[in-house]
Every structure is written in structure tokens, then in C-alpha cells.
Amino acid sequence: MIKSVRLKLTFWYIGSITSLLLLFGLIVYFSLKTILNGNLDKLLYNGGKILERSFSEYMLQHADDPHSLYTIEAGEKTFFIDNIDNEARENFFVDTVYIQLLTFPKAEKISYSIIARTSSLKNRLLPLSPYAYKSCMSHTSFFETLPHLFSFPVRMISLPVYDKDNHSYILQIALSMQHVNNTLEELFFVFCVSFPLVLIVVAGIGHVFMKQAFSPIRRMVAVTRNITSEDLSLRLDPVDSHDEIGELADTLNAMIDRLEQSFQQMTQFSGDVSHELKTPLAQLKCNAEIALRKPRTSGEYQQALRNTIEDTDQLQTIIDDLLFLTKIDSKSWSSSFITVALHEVFLDVFETMYGLVQQKRLAIKFETMDAVLIPGDRGLLRRMFINLISNAIQYTPSGGVIVLSLRKAGHQAVLTITDSGIGIPEAALPHIFDRLYRVDPSRSNDTGGSGLGLAIVDTIVARHNGKILVNSTPGHGTIFQVSFPCFQ
User: Fold this and answer.
1) N- or C-end of the chain: fewer Cβ atoms within 10 A?
2) Which CATH class is domain 244-329?
3) In whole angstroms, what is the distance from residue 243 CA to residue 401 CA?
4) Closest residue by Cα to residue 322 from 455, 461, 430
């Protein structure tokens, strides 16, 4: 089995060209054969019509001669009969033509008389086939090929002719097909000789062409073999073409870019996870060591245990969020979307979190609350609302204001959460949806966050074919705007 694609395509190319050449040769051969035979038939037909007119003119000139026509067997010949060889040479422009004039038999099997014939026939007779007889009876001409009358095949026409009294006769004219056959044989010989030569040239051109066409792919293979997970800096050389190979090179380079970016994110993410887990673990160890340094009162031990529980909760939050992101990112994640009343989910989450709002003494304002139906997963949407509202509550100082809005704009449901909190620096805005990213890492202990809340929000929004926009001014607050496709 041939494993090389280049060789396969080369053989396909040679096979296709060979088939086309054979098909072309057959078309040329049979077309030429048809044309030559057609020209021969045309020559026979036109010559027959000329002889028919000569015969009619002769009969008019000898209308008063009762012996104007005699059969050859009678031993006498008329002017027309004596000059039939001259008539043949003048009308057909060939050395040898075979002509005979017959009386028209009244029935197919009744014998007929030969009135005249050319000397070229010698002692041979042109046969009158049943098909030729029926055609003459129908006042039409009939063409046929006689392969065995001579040592070579001849083409013959039989057509009816008439005298002045409308008496019918049968005129038969035959010409040799030897020149047609010789021409076709020469053409076949030339094709048989030239075909292998053309095939060799085509094979050579195909090999060179395929080698040239696949040279960029060989270079791609050589470069790709050196690309590893440790070194994704290599790129394929751009191919100066707009064909599939150039598109393949661009696609592979784009894929390597995505892989490099993914590996960088994974490396950074692994480092961030290690850092996030290291802090609560260090705190757990520190609390335990302090508690064991000397005997403590029951109250001090209780406080140490409460600190341990807090650190454990923080660890649990980080692990839960990481597991959720891993699960929702996997291809095995299946979420059955149903029609969800987004305003109901929004209000349900707000009621659940209203205690935190009161505890921090924040003012809540509702600008718009339209009834909106979207296709989605109620649990994911609820988690998104919780993370966004928690963010607004955590980073808005006591006495601040949070403005909530859900409105319908055409085929879009637009959710807006505006707070008067501390805001986000402009340099940090492009990164706030990165996993484990924090604008100020020192705030993590105060807020208890895992640094994954907004990353989860961004993933949920993307799952619902939505978009999320952020606009923030440090010291004046932040605006989160989320839009989803909704039902009309």
C-alpha cells in the first residue's frame, strides 16, 4: 500500500491524464471515422444524383428510338451505356468506381436485368439486398458496406431512378473504403506510438509538480516536529499563496498561538491556585502552632477553632469554585436549557441577599424591572446574580447606593448593576475576569473571596450566548451590564 500522499496524488494525476488521453483518442478516432464515412456517403449520393440527371437527359434525347436501352446480355450498347465509365470518372474524381444500372424488379425475389455497368466490375455483380430493395420501393436511397465482394471493403448506395415515362430503375454505385481504413490505421499507429511518450512526459511533469506543491508541507512537518509544550515559540513560515496550503499554515499558526496562550494561562493559573491555597493552609498551621505552644484557656481554644473553621471555609470556597469551573469547562458538561423568567430569578436572589444589604446599611434602588423570558439554566443564572450582587455589596462602603435594572430591549434582556463603591483601576479592567485575579491581593482576607467569582460570571454569560461589559471609575463606583438573547 502506498502511504505517501504525494505519490497517491501523483498516481491519481497520471491515471486521470491517461484516462483523458484515452478518451480523447477514442473521440478523435470515432469522430474521424464518422466524418470520413459521412463524406464517402455524401460523395456517393451526390454522384448518384448527377448520374440520374445524365440518365434522364439521355432518355429525352432518344425518346423516339425504341431501342434506346439494351441489356448487356443482348450484346448491344447505347450511347449512355458506352460512356458510363467516362461519366463515372467525371463525377467521382477517383480512379475506380463501381456502377451498375438495373431494371426494377416487380417483387423482391423476381430476377432483374443489368442494363449497364462500369468496366471496373469485370465479371462481378453488385448485390441487391432486401433492405436496398425495400428502400428503393419507398423511393429512398440505401447505404450499405460490402466487406467481402472484393479483397477490400466497399461502400455502396442503391437509389431509384426514372425515365421520361416514369419507369423505375435501380442505380447502384460503390466506392472503395480502403483509403478510409488506411487513414484510420495510420491514426491508430500514430496514437499508439505517441501515447507512451506523452504518458512519460506527463508522469515527469506530475512528479515535479507534486514535489513542488508539497514542499511547503514538508517544511511545516519539519517545524512542527520541533514544537513541544516546553517551547511553543516556533511558528510555521508563511506560505505566499492563497490556496489550501497557505490556509493550513495560517490555521496551524493560529492554533499554536492559542496553545501557547493556554499553556501560559495554565502555568499562571497553577501558580495562582498554589498561592491561594498556600495562604489559608499557612494560617491553619499557624493557628494550630500558636494553640499548642502553651496551655490555653477554653475560650482561647474556642477562638483558635473558630479561626480554623474560617480558614477551612475559605479553602472550601476556593475548591468548590475551582471544581465548578472545571466542570462547566469540560465537554461532558450538559445543561438543559429551559424557558427562564429572568426577573423572577433576579428578585429571588435579591431577597436572599437583602440581609447583607441591611447589615452593611446600603441603599437599594430599582430603576426598571421588566418581565423577561430567556432560554437558560436557572441554577447557573442564579449563581451569576449572586456573584454580581455580592461583588457590589462587598466593595461598596457603608451608606453607599446600589442601583439594579432589568429591561427588555428588542430581542435582548439587559441587566445593569451599578454601585457607588471603591471602583476598579483602569489598568485592571482587562483582567478582572481572569481566574484568581485580584485587583488588590491584600483585600482577599477582608472580603473572603476566592478570586474566581467574576471568572464564573463570565463563563456563565458565555454559556448563555450573552455579553458582559464593565465600566468603572476609581472612587466613584462600577457598572456591570449583562445582556442575553431573549424571547420576543
Assistant:
1) N
2) mainly alpha
3) 59
4) 455
Give the confidence band of 37 by pLDDT, cuts at 50, 70, 90. very high
What is the mean predicted confidence (pLDDT) over 140-153?
A: 90
Rounded Cα–Cα distance for residues 449 and 455 (Å): 12
Inter-CA distances, 167 with 1, 92, 393, 447, Å: 77, 26, 122, 126
From CA 393, how far away is CA 84, in angstroms rounded?
123
Same topology between domain 244-329 and domain 338-485: no
Question: Which residues, at least 6 apart from 32, have a Cβ–Cβ distance to it below 8 Å?
Answer: 183, 184, 187
Q: How many H helices and E strands in the chain?
A: 11, 12
Are the C-beta atoms of residues 409 and 246 closer than 8 Å to each other? Answer: no
Domain 5-182, classified CATH 3.30.70.120, yes or no: no
pLDDT single digits (tens) 217-243: 777 777 777 777 666 777 777 666 666
Say what the pLDDT of residue 393 is.
92
Q: Domain locations in the chain?
A: 5-182, 244-329, 338-485
Would you call 340 helix, strand, or coil by DSSP?
Answer: strand
CATH superfamily ID and name for 338-485: Histidine kinase-like ATPase, C-terminal domain (3.30.565.10)
